[in-house]
Structures are given as structure tokens and as C-alpha cells.
């Protein structure tokens, strides 16, 4: 199967700002996070998709910060991009999750794209174009049992056939990367325009949390794909790789952001609306010693999660500078450690708001339960228990973790 060439041109869009370096990326993320936080509760309550916010995100240049410098991007550190996602997720984890796949599939092009593919698609990304995803499938034997097929036709072309679920970002995408098995039974990524004939995106996501990620269904009915839009993803896992570590780092950052956002809202509620327990003898909830104790415990957990996230980002950066089996394993284990720690912390923080706020915090109009719903939903993405298994074997025997996209 021929997979390398120079892709054809997509619909033009006004160019986005191009961010210069790590410091600017962080400054832009802080500004956007402050803007996105204002209506986050209302968007969740009304299930109002963040179309305008995503256009703002695209225009800001943040979606292009991992493009290599030789192609005009800032090529920011993994530690920086993790912090960008943490900041966005603390404001609205839905908005943070939507571009997670975007950066993952930019990285696929970086690793396995031809020079022509990289030049074309990196140009698209720097112009503000968004990549979605059509990756997960339902009803298969397990999460990496892909039934979608990229099949050669009699006239020498390629077509995609299959159905994808949990396709976060597809509704808002200009390009939808599709994971599919080829006629050779190997794994490929086909980059398909959002308006390709035979491609349908349905916003039927109805999860209890992450309500506005539009993680719906993509159907592919003989979708034509030029060979020069196809990347041999299976080659990614034939040697040391950071594909899984980077993908999981971004998921971890989202969970750390959820935990931090929940803590901030819990503290604000205690300061302004909660009452002390009568036995405490305190005049305010902030003087209740058991409330103080619990807030301190939760703050320690959030700070630990933030530190583990930053450490994991640095491990990915170190491995990228000198990639081999050992450095790739060190990075994967560091990211797995951070995610295994933070996932239960994010869920705990989502519930602790009510523990600290008391009965009045359960009022439906406050929508404080969105933190728990978001944490519980997003942390289902992949089980931390398997990460702990890999960590244990690595520590005990030095066994390197497997090469796949979830570690």
C-alpha cells in the first residue's frame, strides 16, 4: 500500500496566530482559561457545545505549538503542553479534551508522515485547522480490535468502511484522522476532510460527564481516501516511541486540571457560603478545624498531582532528546505514575466539594456535581490498574512497558 506523498489542498481558512515559544504558549493558555471559565457551568448545564470557544482556541495559535520549528512552529516542550492542558481543563475540561486527539495526530505525522505530508498538514495546523479523531469502536473484542477497513479498490484507489464511537472533536474538525486496518492487516491513519463524501458525523454523545465534548459517532461508507493522506501508524510501534506517553500525558493533564478546578471551587464555596459545624465553636466555615484539616489534605493531593504531571512532562522531553528503549520506558512509567495517582484524586475532589460545602452545595442550580461527573467520565478512558501493573513490573524486575498507544 502506497502511503507517502503530498496531500491535496483543503478548504482555505484565515491564518491563525503563530505562537513563538513556550512562554507565549503558557501566557495565551492562561488568558484563554480565564475566558473559558466564565460560562463553563452554563455550557455544561445546557449542553451547549463550545463552538465559539474552539474558534478562539484555533485563532490563538495554541493548536499549532507542537509543530516542529523547521515547519514554522514553536515545538514547545512536553512539560509546557501538559501545563497548557492543565490550565484549560481547570477552566473547562470539555474544551481541554476536544484538542487532545488533535495534538496526538499531529505527533503521528511528525513520527511517520512523509516530508510532503508533514509540510502540508503542519501548514494546515498552523493556519488554525483542527484535527478530530475517529478511533474507538464499540462491540469489538477489546479497545484495540479495529474492524474499520482501509481497502484498495479495483481502480487503484482506497476507501474507508466502518463505524467509530467516542469520536471527540470530530464535530468541530476540519480533518478527521481515522484509525483503520489495511488489506495487509496493518494499522494506518487516514486523514479525511470533514466534508468527504460518505463520511457522517453524528453528535449523539450522551455521557453524564464531559457533556460538551461532542464525542459522537462517525460512520464511513466507502469514503474515498487518496493514498497520500494515509500514514503507516503500525511503524510507530516497531521501535522506541513516545506516542503513548504523549497521549497519556495530555489525558493526565486534563485530570489534574479537573482536580485543581474542583479544589478552587470548593475553597470559594467554603469561604463565601458554607457554615461551620456547631460543635466546632467557630464563627465561620474557614475557622472550623475539621474543614481546615480536610482542605489541607486535598490541597496536598492536588499539589502532588501537579508535581507528578510536571515530572512526567520532563521525562517525555528527556526521552525525546535521546530516544532509546530505556528513555522511552522511563517516560512511559513517569506518565503512568502521574495518571495512576491523579485519577482517583480527581474523582475524590469532585465529591469533596459536597463534603466541605454541606447540604446547600447540593442545590441543582449550582451544578457543582459537574466536577465529579467530568472526573468520573474522563478517568474511564483507560484503567489505571493496568498502569500500576506495568509500574510494578518495571520497579521489581526492570521489565520495560509494552509499546502501545495507551502507555
UniProtKB/TrEMBL annotation:
Domain of life from the UniProt record: Bacteria
GO-annotated molecular function: oxidoreductase activity
Pfam families on file: Acyl-CoA_dh_2, Acyl-CoA_dh_M, Acyl-CoA_dh_N
Pathway given in the UniProt record: Sulfur metabolism; dibenzothiophene degradation
Localization, UniProt: Cytoplasm
The protein's Enzyme Commission number: 1.14.14.21
The Acyl-CoA dehydrogenase C-terminal domain, residue ranges: 250-382
Enzymatic reactions: dibenzothiophene + FMNH2 + O2 = dibenzothiophene 5-oxide + FMN + H2O + H(+); dibenzothiophene 5-oxide + FMNH2 + O2 = dibenzothiophene 5,5-dioxide + FMN + H2O + H(+); dibenzothiophene + 2 FMNH2 + 2 O2 = dibenzothiophene 5,5-dioxide + 2 FMN + 2 H2O + 2 H(+)
Domain Acyl-CoA oxidase/dehydrogenase middle: 142-223
Record keyword Zinc present: no
EC top class named in words: oxidoreductase
Annotated Acyl-CoA dehydrogenase/oxidase N-terminal domain residues: 28-128
NCBIfam families: sulfur_SfnB
Similarity remark: Belongs to the DszC flavin monooxygenase family.
PANTHER family the record matches: ACYL-COA DEHYDROGENASE, ISOVALERYL-COA DEHYDROGENASE, MITOCHONDRIAL-RELATED
Protein name, entry field: Dibenzothiophene monooxygenase
The species this protein was found in: Planosporangium thailandense
Amino acid at each position: 500500500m502506497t502511503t507517502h506523498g503530498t496531500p491535496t489542498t483543503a478548504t482555505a481558512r484565515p491564518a491563525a496566530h503563530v505562537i513563538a515559544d513556550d512562554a507565549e504558549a503558557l501566557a495565551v493558555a492562561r488568558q484563554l482559561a480565564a475566558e473559558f471559565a466564565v460560562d463553563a457551568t452554563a455550557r455544561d448545564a445546557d449542553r451547549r457545545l463550545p463552538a465559539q470557544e474552539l474558534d478562539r482556541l484555533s485563532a490563538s495559535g495554541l493548536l499549532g505549538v507542537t509543530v516542529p520549528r523547521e515547519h514554522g512552529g514553536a515545538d514547545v516542550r512536553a512539560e509546557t503542553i501538559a501545563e497548557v492542558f492543565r490550565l484549560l481543563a481547570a477552566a473547562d475540561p470539555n474544551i481541554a479534551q476536544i484538542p487532545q486527539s488533535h495534538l496526538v495526530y499531529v505527533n503521528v505525522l511528525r513520527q511517520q508522515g512523509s516530508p510532503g505530508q508533514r509540510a502540508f498538514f503542519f501548514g494546515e495546523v498552523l493556519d488554525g485547522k483542527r484535527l478530530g479523531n475517529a478511533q474507538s469502536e464499540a462491540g469489538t473484542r477489546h479497545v484495540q480490535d479495529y474492524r474499520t477497513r482501509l481497502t484498495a479498490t479495483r481502480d487503484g484507489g482506497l476507501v474507508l468502511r466502518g463505524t467509530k464511537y467516542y469520536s471527540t472533536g470530530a464535530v468541530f474538525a476540519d480533518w478527521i484522522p481515522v484509525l483503520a486496518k489495511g488489506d495487509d492487516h496493518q494499522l494506518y491513519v487516514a486523514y479525511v476532510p470533514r466534508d468527504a463524501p460518505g463520511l457522517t458525523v453524528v453528535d449523539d454523545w450522551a455521557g453524564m460527564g464531559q457533556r460538551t465534548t461532542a464525542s459522537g459517532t462517525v460512520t464511513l461508507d466507502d469514503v474515498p481516501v487518496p493514498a497520500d493522506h494515509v500514514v503507516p501508524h503500525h511503524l510507530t510501534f516497531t521501535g522506541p516511541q513516545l506516542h503513548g506517553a504523549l497521549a497519556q500525558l495530555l489525558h493526565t493533564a486534563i485530570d489534574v486540571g479537573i482536580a485543581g478546578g474542583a479544589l478552587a471551587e470548593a475553597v470559594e464555596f467554603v469561604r463565601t457560603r458554607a457554615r461551620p459545624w456547631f460543635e466546632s465553636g467557630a464563627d465561620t466555615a474557614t475557622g472550623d478545624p475539621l474543614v481546615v484539616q480536610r482542605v489541607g489534605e486535598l490541597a496536598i493531593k492536588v499539589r502532588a498531582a501537579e508535581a507528578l504531571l510536571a515530572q512526567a512532562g520532563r521525562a517525555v522531553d528527556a526521552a525525546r532528546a535521546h530516544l532509546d528503549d530505556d528513555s522511552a520506558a522511563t517516560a512511559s512509567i513517569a506518565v503512568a505514575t502521574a495518571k495512576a495517582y491523579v485519577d482517583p484524586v480527581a474523582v475524590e475532589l469532585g465529591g469533596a466539594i459536597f463534603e466541605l460545602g454541606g447540604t446547600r452545595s447540593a442545590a441543582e442550580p449550582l451544578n457543582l456535581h459537574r466536577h465529579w461527573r467530568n472526573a468520573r467520565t474522563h478517568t474511564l478512558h483507560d484503567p489505571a490498574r493496568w498502569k500500576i501493573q506495568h509500574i510494578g513490573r518495571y520497579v521489581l524486575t526492570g521489565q520495560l512497558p509494552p509499546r502501545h498507544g495507551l502507555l
